[in-house]
TrEMBL record:
Protein name: Response regulatory domain-containing protein
Keywords: Hydrolase, Phosphoprotein
MF annotations from Gene Ontology: phosphatase activity
SUPFAM superfamilies to which the protein is assigned, alphabetical: ATPase domain of HSP90 chaperone/DNA topoisomerase II/histidine kinase (SSF55874), CheY-like (SSF52172)
Length: 548
């Protein structure tokens, strides 16, 4: 029989070891504060210093600062301002000897969590004030993390629309699987871009490019080039004339005369038997014959765009085998370094891709996402030092994989007119979380769920899936159920370990995933499922359309 926890899940109720930094120049007052804490016995870690100068180096070791407003080196709100200016500062409770509470209220208005008047404090009040201040500071940090997560998700969507668009394909036997990863932590805008278009005559055109540098200016240039390329292809401009026009667009749009862009462009014939390859300073794509990858010829490699106006780029005719695939990538993939500083390069990429394809088997094209994720995992393990963005576009046969994807996001026969369900199983590997996010995004997009809800849902499902991969380490299942006004997300794994909402610990780098789930959802819970468990969360849906 299954047991279910209350909404909100299990909370670890062990006592919290709160560290207090007492900044007080009066020795008698310092002794009194220590004794008041000792009377209650819930806070025992108290460090006493007599000046703000002594306190500042110790701020990272404290959860809460008890700050006297009259110190030898700082008086009044100036002392508080110095503390609050320190990034990641702990909670602050102000101590004032004023009978008038005006200065205490002013301190709270300036950013302190609370204030206490000396002579009017007992042990219970002091302990409770510190505990509440720590929790309030924790709540502020969590709110900031949630806001940053939402901002990052919004930036990813903008990036997806501008640099990484939806392919325009009519041929159901061709699919494009893509990956984009920024080179620096928290950097969501880069200059890598790609696009895929099939024209009315059946020709398949693919481009991947890398604008030199990082940041929003380079991203804007990348968007301009990507849109210009799509416009030229749709307008019927011959492939051989496209890169010279992009060269002129780059020179016109760039903010820095030294900015350049490398590009690889492939035009696959309508009969899919040969392709024309154009290289402008870019590493050659890999042609995959069955499970054997090899680089395309680069003897016609030309200079990057933006180096010399008036340059033309020659095409190289490449015969295609019956069972072909193409992997296009930017140099951020092959310029990753290992601990010894050695670059991966194309040879290293081939040495990783060959066994990856062999492990996946002859039918790997039905699972291109798994192959790409496995490849990137191996690249990161071998050459983890990376400073540049990396983008990949894998062209494969999609005759089987498209049907599998459609089955994943379709309505199930047992669903009623106001109920839509997604069900899927995943292996506990590093690429699973990315696939979960993609599956949920496709599912929600099909039923026209509003973007704000999509952002929240992706963060929630990502945290639950990460817990299954990192902690349960068993195959896990996802069930997402849409009903009017609500999305229920359920992740089932094979571990009996109970999920715990961890207490606040300013020193912890992990363990806050369920805090985020609780903040984004209307409620979460778990229940036993045989030898394992199911963790579920409800996300409020602002807008949706369940009409088929």
């Amino acid at each position: 029989m299954n047991s279910t926890s209350p909404v909100g899940g299990s909370v670890d109720a062990r006592p919290r070891d709160i560290r207090v930094l007492l900044v007080e120049d009066d020795a008698a007052d310092a002794v009194l504060v220590t004794e008041l804490f000792a009377d209650v016995g819930e806070i025992s870690h108290v460090v006493h210093v007599q000046s703000l100068a002594e306190a500042e180096p110790r701020l990272r070791e404290a959860d809460c600062v008890l700050l006297d407003m009259n110190l030898p080196d700082a008086v009044g709100l100036g002392a508080l301002a110095r503390l609050l200016a320190v990034e990641g500062h702990p909670a602050v409770v102000v101590l004032t000897g004023d009978v008038d509470e005006t200065r205490g209220r002013a301190a709270v208005a300036a950013g302190a969590e609370d204030y206490l008047i000396k002579g009017r404090v007992d042990g219970q009040l002091l302990t409770r004030a510190v505990q509440y201040a720590v929790e309030r500071r924790h709540a502020e940090r969590l709110a900031t993390q949630l806001h940053q997560a939402r901002v990052h998700e919004q930036e990813n969507r903008r990036l997806g629309r501008g640099l990484l668009p939806t392919p325009l394909l009519q041929d159901a036997t061709v699919a494009v699987t893509t990956r984009y990863e920024p080179g620096r932590r928290q950097l969501l805008l880069g200059g890598d871009f790609y696009d895929t278009i099939e024209t009315d005559d059946g020709t398949l055109h693919v481009i991947i490019g890398d604008v030199s540098g990082h940041g929003p200016d380079e991203a804007a240039v990348g968007v301009s080039l990507r849109i210009a390329w799509r416009t030229l292809i749709l307008a019927g401009v011959p492939a051989g004339h496209v890169l010279p026009v992009l060269d002129r667009v780059l020179v016109t749009e760039r903010h820095d005369a030294t900015l350049f862009t490398t590009v690889a462009m492939v035009s696959v014939s309508a009969d899919r038997r040969h392709a024309d390859l154009y290289l402008a300073g870019h590493p050659p794509p890999l042609l995959i014959d069955g499970t054997t990858p090899a680089p395309l010829p680069d003897h016609a490699l030309g200079v990057p765009l933006g180096v010399q106006v008036g340059t033309t780029w020659a095409a190289v005719d490449v015969p295609l085998p019956p069972d072909w695939a193409l992997l296009l990538y930017t140099d951020g993939l092959i310029e990753a370094r290992n601990a010894a500083g050695e670059l991966l390069w194309t040879d290293g990429l081939l040495n990783l891709l060959s066994p990856t394809l062999a492990e996946a088997g002859r039918d790997w094209q039905t699972r291109p996402d798994t192959v790409l994720d496995s490849l990137l995992t191996k690249v990161d393990a071998l050459a983890p030092i990376r400073g540049d963005d990396r983008a990949l576009a894998l062209l494969t046969s999609a005759s089987t994989s498209q049907g599998a994807a459609a089955a994943t996001i379709s309505a199930h026969p047992q669903d009623g007119p106001e109920r839509r369900t997604l069900r899927h199983r995943y292996a506990p590997d590093p690429g699973a979380c990315g696939q979960v996010r993609r599956d949920v995004r496709s599912f929600l997009a099909r039923w026209q769920v509003d973007e704000d809800t999509v952002e929240d849902a992706l963060l929630v499902v990502s945290e639950l899936a990460s817990n299954a991969v990192d902690h349960a380490r068993t195959p896990f299942g996802l069930t997402a159920t849409l009903t009017p006004g609500n999305l229920l997300v359920e992740v089932t794994d094979g571990s009996p370990a109970e999920p715990r909402l961890q207490p606040f610990d300013a020193r912890a780098e992990r363990g806050r995933g369920l805090q985020m789930v609780q903040g984004l959802s209307s409620g979460w819970s778990f229940r036993r499922e045989g030898a394992g468990k199911t963790v579920s969360a409800d996300v409020t849906v602002a807008a949706m359309n369940l009409d088929p």
